[in-house]
Amino acid sequence: MISFNLILILIIVLIFIENYIIEGNEEFNLIKCPDEITNLKKWSNYKSWKKLKLPKKGESINITTPILMDIKPPDLDVIRIFDKGMLVWKHINDLELRVKAILIYDGGQLIIGSEQCKFKYKATITLIGDSIYTELNQTINDNEYGQKVIGVDNGGTIELHGEVTKTTWTKLKTTISPSTFKSFNKNILTLLDNVNDWPIGSEILITSTDYDMEQSETNFIAKCSTCKPNQIKLKNPIKYLHWGSITKGVDERAEVALLSRNIKIQGQVGKNCVNNKLICDLFPFDSFGAHIMIRKGFVNAHFFGIELFNVGQSHLISRYPIHFHLCERVDEMGGYENPAYIQHCSVHKSFSRCYVVHATDGLLIHDNIGFDSIGHCFMLCDGIEMDNIFSHNLGAVTRYGLLFPHDRSCEMCTTIQPNDFNGNPTQCTECNAVSTFWISNPWNTFINNVAAGSDSTGIWYLFSDYPSGLSYEKGVKFKIKPYLIPVKKFYNNNVHSCTNGIQIDGGVKLTPPSKTQPQQLYSLTNARYKPRSNPKDPNSKASPSIFNGATIYKNKWRGCWARGGFLFMKNFKIADNAIGFTFASEGTIPADHQNVGQSIYKSLIVGESDNIGQQSNNIPIVNGRTNPYGENGLMPIRGFEIYDGTISLDSMVFSSFKSLQAPLLRNSSAIGFLRFNDWQSSSETTIKNIKFLNVDKEIHFEQSLMDGDKISTLRDLDGSITKLPSNSILVRNLLFYSTNNCLYKKQWDALICKEDTRQIYICNDDTNSTNYLTPDQPTLSSSGTTTTTTTTTVVAIRDNIENQKIEQNGLPNHSPRNRFQFLVFKNHHYDFHFPNHPTPPILRVQPINWKQSEKFIFGICIGISKGINLKVLKTVNGTYGNSDFVQELYPTFSFNLISESTYYFNEITSILYIMYYQYNSKGHFNYCPQYGCEELVIKISGKNSGRVTGDCQSLAYGSSFTLFDELVNRKFENSFQMDKSIIYNSDYAYRGNAYLPYHPSSKSQIQFKCNHCIPSVGIKYFELWVNGNRNSNQKISIQLFYSINSNQFKSKPFAIDKKFFKKNSWVLVRILFENLKNLLPENHIQLISSFDGLSIINSLKLNQPSLFLDNIKFVYDN
Question: I need a labelling partner for 920 at 20 to 30 A (CA). Which of 11, 494, 832, 1029 fits?
C-alpha cells in the first residue's frame, strides 16, 4: 500500500511539472525553459553526434535528436532538423550559428527561448553565402525555399522568443535640433514613455518629422547617470530637426524606436553587388540577404523580440525577411491552439520588404518595426488574405523596389519594361505605388500603426477584382472579390513624411498584356471600391466602410486620397500637406448610382503647423519653412479637396490656412477643388457645422476652366462658410450661373446663390453615326494607345439669353467624348446645342440628383426642321434597348401643352422641347432612384439626319443683320456679285429652298457691297453655313472692305479652317467679329465707324471644287 507521504510527493511533482509545460510542445513535455529539457544532448559533446565527432566547417548536418546549442560551431553548410530533431539554444551569452540554410520539417524544431522563458542573452544566426551564383537553392518536400534561408515546412516548429523591453518604440516629448542638441540638451532625448530598460549600446531610430523621409536617422544609446526614466543619452550628434510636441491639435512628435534585440538573425553581405547587370545598376550594393519562410502545415511558428538585419533578396519574389507563404489559416480556426504571431520584432536594412503575409489568414503582426526597406514593407500579397491583425507597428523609410511594377519607381518601370504590348512607351501610372503598408484585402484589422516615410505612399488599400498571383484561381472559385469587401477595422493610424499619406484606390492587373490591355501583368490599374453587404454579390446592398482615426502630416503631395462608395472617415487629424484630403467617387453614372456618397466628420485639418522643418534633399524652403511638393513650393494649399462625388463634411475644424502675398503669391484655402478637373461633379456635396480658425480663405475656386472646373459647387446647409441663412450654394463666378438670387464674393471669386442645384448629363449614344468635323492630329493617350481627338462640344444656354452660356467638351472616358455634364438651377430653363457637329442620331438626357415629383422643361437643338423624324422615349435603368421601363412621348402643337408624356418641336428655331418628370425618390447618397436612373432618349432619323450642325443659337436668341437667307438682302441687291446663280432645291438647302453655289478660282468671289451699312460696333459674330458638296478640303476666306476719306481698303483675309467642310453636310461657321476687325491695320481701326461689305474669296491661287453657302449674316451682341 502506497504511503500518504509518497502520494503527496507525487502530487506536488505533477503540479510542478504542469506549471512548466510549454504550450504547443507537449510531445516533449517541455518545462519552463527549453534548455532545461532533460534529454537534450550538448552540441559540444562529440557523443551527441552519430559520427562521434563534432560537425566540421562547411559540413551539412541532420539533426534528428534533441540538441542543445552550447558552443559556437564552425561555419556550416545546411542544417536539416526533422524526425523529432530539436535544436535548442542554451541560456548563455554570445552564441552564434553561421550557416547557409536551416531547414525544419517533419517534427523538427528550432527553439530559442519560449513564451514562459524569454531568452535574455545575445544569440545570433548568420545566414552565409557569397552569391546567387554559388549557393544552392534549398528544397523541402519539393517545395522551393531558395538560398540563405530558414525554412519551415510541414511538421516543422520555430519558436524564437527574445526578452524585450517594456516599450519597443515611443515618441519624443520635446523638439530637438542639431543646433541645440549638444549644448542645451546635452545629447539627451526626452521621451514620452519609460525607457530605463533600453540597453546601453543599443541602436535606435528617430523618424523624420518633415517632408524628407531621409531625415530619419539612427544613433546609439550611451551611458547616462543623470537621465530620468524617460530619457536616454545618444552617442553621436543628430543631423536633423525632429519635432516633439502636439502642434495646433496634431501630434507630429517623432517616433523613437529600439532597433536592437537579443536574438538577431542576419545575412552575411559583401561590399559589392554580385548579380546580373540590371540588378546591380538599380541596387549597386550586395542585396543578397537572409530570409525566413514558413509554409502550410507547420506545427508552431512564433517570433517574439527578434532582430532581422541585412535580410531579403531584391532579385526574387518570396525571399522576404519573415514570410508566411500559402499557410491558409494560422489561428484557432485553422486548428492552432496557440495561433502564429510576429511580435516586438525589428527588421532593418532589408533588401526586399519586411513582414509578408501571403495567402495566410489569422496572423497577428503586433508591435514590430520595419526600417530602411526596399519594396512594400508590411504586405498582404495577393488580396486573398483576411482576418489578420496589424497593430502598433512602425514602418519607416520604404524605398522603391524591383519585384512588381507597383513596387517600382517610374525610372525602374521604364528601364525594366520600356514598351507595352503594343510597342508604346510604358506609362508611369502602372508603377509608383511602393507603400509602407500594402493592404490588398480590406477584411483585416489595422490599428495604431505608423507609416513614417515612403518613396510613394504610407498606407495603400487596393481593391482588385479577384486575388492575384498564386491565389487567383482560388479567388475566382470561391468568389473572393476584394473590391466588394468592407473594411474590417481601421483605427488610429499615423502617416507622415511620405509623398502620399493614405491611398484608398486602385488594384493590380490580373491578366497578361494584350492588344486591348497592353499594360504589364500586376501593374497598377484603375479599380472602384464598392463595399457590399454580400461581398460575393455586386448587386447586394452597399455596406459602409469606416476609417476611424488617423493622424496625417508632412506628406509632400496628398494626405489622403480615398475612392469608393459609402466611405466614412472620422476623427482624422491632418496637417502640413499640399492637399489634406480628397474623396473620389465610387464610379460613373449610370452604372454606379446607389450609395456612392462619402463622408468625413469630427476631424481637424491644419494648413501649416508650428513645425517649420529643416531643408534637405531639395525640399523647398518658402517663407522660412519647408514646403510640400509642386511648383517650387508655391502650389496652392488645400485642406479638403472636392472632386467628383457626393461628399458630406460635418463637424470639421479648419485651422491656419494663410496665403502668401507678393512676391511669392501662393494661395492657401481650407476647402478647394481638384485642379484642371475634366471629370464629373455632384450637386449634393454639402457642409455643415464647420469652424474656421485663422483662415485667410475659406474656399477657393480654381482659375482653370475644364469641364469639371466649370461645374464645381458646394451646398452650405447651415451658413458655416457663407454666413448666410441655411441652404445656400456656391458656384463658379460665371455669367451662366449669375441670377438675381446670387451674390458675388470677391475673396473667393465665387457666387453665393439661393438656388437649388441639379445636374444633367447629355449623352451621345451613337458616336459611330455622328457626323463629326475633321479630327485633330493623332495623340498618345494615357494608356499608351494612339488616338485621334475629335472636337466634341455641347453648349447650354440659360433662360433663352444667348450670353448666359456654358460650353462643355465632355468626359474623357470615351473617344470621341460622348458624355457632357451640366450643373443647372431648378426652376430655370436650359437649351442645349451642338456647335461642332450635327445633333447625334441617338441622344440620351440623364438628369441626376433630382428629387421625386420634380420636373423641368429643356430644349435640344435638332438643327433642321425638314427631312427628319423624331422619337422621344422615357426610360428607367438603362438605355432604350435594355431598359426596365420604356414610355414613348408624343408630339403636341404648342409649347404650353408640354407634359411628362408629350414634347413640342419648334420648326422655326429647330429646337425640340421636352419635360422631364421624376417619378421615384432617391436617397441623399444616391445619384438616381433605387430603381434606376430615369432618362429621356431622343432618336433622330430621316434623310437630313446628321447633315446639319446642331446649333440653333442665332435662330433662337439672336437678332441679326442677314446678308443671304433664301434671297439676298435688299441692301446688297444692286451690288451683289457671284459667278453662278442661286440654286433652288428644298431637298438640299440648309433651311428653306435656296442656297448659294461657289466655285473657288483664282478670280472668283462672292461679294456683298453697300454704303457704310455694316456697323463696326454692336456685332458679335459673323456666321455662315457651308456645305462641302462632294468634297471636304476646300479653303476659303472672309475679307471686309471699307473706306476712309473716300479711299477704298480691304482687310487681310480670315481663313476658314478646312475642318468645317463636310461632304454633303451643312456646318455652321461662327467667327467673332473682333477677329475680322483685328485683321485691319491698327491705325485704321479707330477711324472706322462702319464697313462697306465683305467678300468670300478663294484662299488658294488654284481652282478648288465647288461648295455651297447659306444663311449668311451678322449676329448682334445682345
Answer: 832
Which residue reads 513535455 in cell numbers? 29
How far apart CA 513 and CA 427 sit, in angstroms, is 13
- DSSP state letters, 971-1017: GGTTT-B-SSPPEE-TTTSSSSSEEEEE---SS-EEEEEEEEEEESS
Q: What is the DSSP letter of 176?
A: B
Residue 31's pLDDT band (boundaries 50, 70, 90)? low
Pairing of β 109-112 and β 157-161: parallel
| Cell numbers 527588421: residue | 347
Please spell the DSSP secondary structure of 225-271, one letter per residue: SS--TTEEEESS---S-B--SEETTEE-PPEEEE---SEEEEE---S
CB 597 within 8 A of CB 927: no
Interatomic CA distance for residues 1001 and 1004, integer angstroms: 5
- Whether the pLDDT of residue 879 is over 70: the answer is no
Q: How far is CA 714 from the centre of its chain?
A: 22
β-bridge partners, 466: none
- Residue 497 in contact with residue 209, Cβ under 8 Å? yes
In total, the chain counts a number of residues equal to: 1118
**Closest by Cα among 814, 815, 768 to 788:** 815
Helical residues (DSSP H) of 911-966, grouped into ranges: 953-956
Q: Report the candidate in 449, 431, 620, 569 with the shortest Cα–Cα distance to residue 560.
A: 569
Strands 95-104 and 123-127: parallel
Strand partners, 450: 394, 494
**Bridge partner residues of 308 (DSSP):** 265, 347
What does the block give as the cell for 1101?
491661287
Residue owning grid cell 438656388: 755
170 contacts 256 by C-beta, under 8 angstroms = yes
756/728 Cα distance (integer angstroms): 8
**Rounded CA gap, 608 and 603, in Å?**
16
> Which residues, in sequence order, are bridge partners of residue 1113?
962, 1023
Position 843, amino acid: L
pLDDT computed for residue 1058 by the predictor: 80
Could you tell me the maximum CA-CA distance found in the chain, to the nearest angstrom? Answer: 148
Instruction: State which H helix or E strand residue 439 sits in.
Output: strand 435-439
Cβ neighbours of 637 (radius 10 Å)? 27
Other beta carbons within 10 angstroms of residue 592's beta carbon come to 17
* 869 phi and psi angles, rounded to 5 deg: -125, 140
Pairing relationship of beta strands 902-906 and 842-848 according to DSSP bridges: unpaired
1056-to-185, 839, 1022, 1076, 1096 alpha-carbon distances in Å: 76, 22, 12, 11, 10
Sequence-distant (6+) residues with CB within 8 A of 412 are 282, 400, 402, 431
| Cβ neighbours around 491 below 10 Å, total | 16
| Strand arrangement, sheet containing 217-222 | 169-171, 255-258, 203-206, 217-222, 231-234, 188-190
- Give 919-934 as a DSSP string: -S---TT-SS-TT--E
Q: How far apart are CA 364 and CA 369, in angstroms?
A: 14
pLDDT digits (tens, 9 = 90+) for 693-702: 999 999 999 8
Query: What was the pLDDT predicted at 32?
Result: 80
1080 pLDDT band (50/70/90 cuts)?
very high
Within a 13 Å sphere around the CA of 488, how many CA atoms are in the beta-carbon half?
17
Residue 1026 has pLDDT above 60, yes or no: yes
Rounded CA-CA distance 1060/791 in Å is 11
- Cβ atoms of residues 229 and 572 within 8 Å: no
User: CB of 529 within 8 A of CB of 505?
Assistant: yes
Reported as a single tens digit per residue, the pLDDT across 109-168 is 999 999 999 999 999 999 999 888 899 999 999 999 999 999 999 999 999 999 999 999
